[in-house]
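Hello again,

I reread your note about wanting to compare the complex against the isolated chains. To keep things tidy I'm splitting this into two emails, and this first one only covers the full assembly. Below are the input lines as submitted, including protein chains and any nucleic acid or small-molecule components. They are followed by the predicted structure of everything together. The single-chain runs will come separately.
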Amino acid sequence: MKKTLRSKAFFTAAAWPVSLVVFFPIFWMLISGFKTEVEAVSTPPRLVFRPTLENYAAVWQRADYVGHAVNSVLISFGSTLLALAFALPAAYAMAFFPTRRTKSTLLWMLSTKMLPPVGVLVPIYLLFRDLGLLDKRLGLLSVYTLINLPIVVWMLFTFFKEVPREVLEAARMDGAGPRHEILNLLLPLSLPGIVSTALLAVILSWNEAFWSLNLTAAKAAPLTAFMASFSSPEGLFWAKLSAASTMAIAPIVVFGWLSQRQLVRGLTFGAVK
Amino acid sequence: MTASSDSSRSAAPGRKSRRNPRTLPFLLPSLVVLFLWAVVPLVMTIWFSFERYNLLNPAQRGFARFENYRFLLSDPGLARALVNTFVLVGGVLAITVVFGTLLAVLFDQPFFGRGIARVLVIAPFFVMPTVSALIWKNMLMDPVNGVFGFLMRSAGLSPIDWFSKAPLAAIVIIVAWQWLPFALLILLTALQSLDPETRESARMDGAGPFAMFSFIILPHLRRAIGVVVMIETIFLLTIFAEIFVTTAGGPGLASTNLAFLIYRFALLEFDIGGASAGGILAIVLANIAAIFLMRTISRNLET
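Full-complex prediction:
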């Protein structure tokens, strides 16, 4: 017992400093958002200061910040719902009625995820221009639906596979119709899986920054693209950058923490168990 | 697959029929939209890459044969962009795999506050790329007012002007910080599937911590490390946002990678043919990693 306590203390002393170093940039951003602009750039860096909410007020009062935040919410949640609408039936069919082609179908879907976006930038840009989808929320929403669809199908498929067959078969024996089977058994049983799939899709869409930078501008830009406007600022801006960044990442970091256990499944397509 | 299952018409789970017409309507919407998304633009890119096509001069369109490829290969920027791409991918891979493995071993041990420490360490993965790049560029790496500069001056060194002197190294550090949690999460998951009895019996045989790491843990992690390398390679080959907000590829071409070069061809010089030829090059490079990744996924996939 004594030995395990000592080893526990040793690993505590080893792991915590590393964790704090890795987290430091986020911590620094967090506290700089509550400094004045002058305090934010002061050297030596300040750890003690009187917190102010003026940066949050300033960022929030910029009408465009709220607009871009709304864009982020609409685009990431909208694309997630749409991807689920496409993926739920597909994953259901492949998990419960597999055919010889199921495996190759799944693999083909995953392989579309490996196409580098920059390889199709030109045709997508031109198509969007001709269809009038440039700088439109609908345009980015459909892109995100499609880039996340393979991951969503894949995750739902693995969650459906884990639903015990005996339960479904017992219900079928009792004369349950397919509608009853899906609504009253399958959905409740796999709801945690569906929720964590949705969380991952929201996270990935919220943070996507290739298509948002290339396909949107002043009107439809989500926060990823809006934040890029801080790369050519005027005057002191670190405190405001910190406040805007904190607001932009806070909801999604919380989502990430909630879904961390299911994340590996979605991000590696089951290649690591 | 036996012949009998071919003739099976039942859709009972567990038995596989060759074709199940009832499931096609469920699958078709996903298949059609993914086809439109992935295959159609891909064919268009291939087509454009053989065309003479500049948006500034759209009347002069025509078949260019290999002209775009010849132009691309003779562009002095290409060699630089390819080298930068490999440095970026290689640098980030080295950092994330080495530190990810060490951190995974550390986080596999019980210690006080492990849950909270884990939450802190994986947080960078959820920060949007434009935000993390800007925070690092300004508040940490700025030579005058940044935290790193302060630390270096306190240590009696002169601060590094990261983005004019070592822009690529700066980007490698930022991207590695973002992807370290990814490597950690995957390697930790893999480590937790290591059979405790294997570990115990190695300990019985007198294996010390170092022998345990090199003969038990590392071999067990080999495949997971392979997966991390392949997935990161696919995504890191086309890093874009971090370059876009920090250096815009400069100074000169010092931090231009393949993705940024293509972006410049397409949206700044409007050279559709040249950008498409570059796009094909990017696709070919990504496919090299993708082939290995698909093989691993396929091996683990049970339908």
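For quick reference: Residues 76-108 of chain B form the longest helix (33 residues).

B.
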